[in-house]
Design a protein that fits this description.
With 362 residues, the chain is α/β, with parallel strands linked by helices. The longest helix has 24 residues.
Amino acid sequence: MKIIHCSDLHLDSKMKSNLDSKKAKERRDEILLTYQKMVNYAKENDVKIILIAGDMFDKKNITVKAKNIVLDSIQANPQIDFIYLKGNHDEATFIAELEEIPENLKLFNQEQWTTYHYGKITISGIEFGKLSSYEIYNTLMLNKNDINLVMLHGQEVKYDQKDKAEIINMQSLKNKNIDYLALGHIHKFKQEKIDTRGIYCYSGCLEGRGFDECGEKGFVLIDIQEETSKITTRFIPFATRRLYEIRVDVTDTFSTLDTENRIDQQIKDIEKEALIKIVLTGKVELDSERDIAYLEKKYKGMYYFAKIYDETTLKIDYMTYENDASLKGEFIRLVLKQNLSEEEQRKIITTGIKALSGEEVN
């Protein structure tokens, strides 16, 4: 049997932290389209179950379009069971507003473990909120002769942390006859052993929404051989667009062109449909020139989205300015006497030197 494990779709996210209104709407639509493409992938590859391990939606109030797309995808594919465990971003609104829950939409609750049976394969889950961690872990009973999949949504920890919400105590799940623990909440793919029998896996999100979600995004394809109880898993990259954070060391560059050439070398293999964040690092000379607005305009024209952060530090020989009688020397000595962080010094000195040189100050 083939099963898809996905999570943290965050359908209907605002997407406005970096993007203008037009591109934010485009990205919201792309996330919905990626979800639909995943369902079509399941249909075309004989996938029988889609596990959604929390945070299908991003907030309580979602658009009618998003609700209809999800509901239509479920109703149009009765041969696929959609097993949906709500996460910390999900609200009951979507389910509560349904006049009738489709037969192939399977749900969980906060009161007790719920288990769905598919021959030897069992899929169990519980939502955090009402029971203590002691009650949750001590009421999970799985038959060692079954192939047991378990769904939870939360942050993994090695040991208990006083029953905090959305905390998954991995130590308490050892030796519970779990073969595959399908997790949600972490937006990056991760797969490791629980014990000698089972593995746990965060599928990550389907689409990166911000630069804290860089890298490959997609879902996990689980293939179970019931006769041998063998489970194989494969991460399937599936995002429409990928986000990158590129750190570029511009030490010893002296002009905008030098900086541009250094950036170009590091981003030459990145696809033009990507969203990129370029972080300039290194130590630069006081008199070096970098026009960030110019560079950002160039890369915004090349990629779907681009932004640049200047985190360089100044290479200043304090002794050089100790007896410098110029206005520049007096200004630098004045700044260096203040009780400021290196970052504050860099910003003030850079701005001041530009002004003293007659350059435009943004």
